[in-house]
Amino acid sequence: MLLTEYLNTDIDFGKYGVFEPVIDRDSHFFINLQRLRQTEVPEFRDSLHLINAHFERIIKLLLKAEAKDCKRDNFYKNTFIYFKFNEVNGICLGFSKSISGNGFGPKLSAEVLSNAFDIVKAGIEDPEFFQLM
Description:
The protein is an all-alpha fold. Helix content is 39%, strand content 0%.
C-alpha cells in the first residue's frame, strides 16, 4: 500500500520531490550522506558537519580506549552511548522485512564499534570513515 492510498489523498508527492514509500515494507533505499555536501535544502544545509562532529566524539573516546571491553574500559563503554541509531518507524527505508526495523541493534553496533576501534588504533581519525562502514 502506498502512502497516498493509506492517507486517502490524491496528492502527487513526486511533483514536490517527496519520496512516497510503500508503507507495509522497507523500500531498500538508504540515505546517501555524501549528497549532503551539495544540498540546497535549508533544513539539511549544515547536517554533514553535524554528523561528522558526532562521529568525532566517538573517535575521541576510541582514541582513549585501551580495550574492546565495556566492563573494564569506560572509554570504550561510552562509545555505545553515542552509537545509538534507532529507526524512525514509518519512513520505510532500509532492508527490514517490516516497517518497524531496529536501525542499529546491539549486535550490529558492537560489530561496527569493534571495527571502528581497530581503524582508530591503526591511526585513521577521519569521521567520514564511519560513513563507509
